[in-house]
Write a structure and sequence with these properties.
globular; 65% helix; three-stranded antiparallel beta sheet; mainly alpha; 158 residues; Arc Repressor Mutant, subunit A; 8% strand
Length: 158
């Protein structure tokens, strides 16, 4: 059996193991998109699905809904706009407010993307068959960190 130092570290290796798991899936998705000829990034699916559900959202609403920083959302949205997947509509009442919507190109490609995403979802479900509580445990950790950040928890022990 191959040595895995991160497992040896137990709790201290958790962050690196989660990153390794995330990277493994991210690079696999990127490869799948390349094979399928998709010109999208792995994390864009969350914005596609959010805008499909709500039709339009501001940057702030997207950031709040996804729990991601405003700069991360701006960067993602700008790339999606450059690729022609997002349209921006300036609010008629307040021209500082911009509503983001899926473009015609996005709506046309969405069924093809969703087919791949559903296969990915089925694969994740299969991986979790022996770990049915994983997502609820993950949710519990997220909730605890909302209540008190990781930084604050560590600092209180120093």
């Amino acid at each position: 059996m191959k040595e895995d130092y991160l497992k040896e570290l137990e709790h201290l290796g958790l962050i690196a193991r989660l990153k390794r798991l995330s990277d493994n899936m991210l690079y696999s998705i990127r490869d799948i998109y390349k094979i399928k000829g998709f010109d999208i990034e792995p994390n864009w699916h969350i914005v596609f699905l959010l805008l499909k559900k709500y039709r339009s959202r501001t940057m702030t609403q997207i950031s709040d809904s996804l729990g991601l920083s405003q700069p991360a959302i701006v960067k993602m949205i700008n790339k999606m706009k450059e690729s022609g997947y997002i349209e921006v509509v300036v609010d008629s009442v307040d021209n500082r407010k911009k509503q983001l919507m899926l473009s015609k190109k996005a709506k046309k490609e969405l069924p093809t993307f969703e087919k791949v995403w559903s296969r990915g979802e089925a694969t994740i479900a299969e991986l979790l068959t022996k770990n049915k509580t994983f997502t609820s445990q993950l949710e519990d950790i997220e909730k605890q960190l909302e209540e008190k950040s990781f930084k604050d928890r560590v600092m209180s022990r120093l």
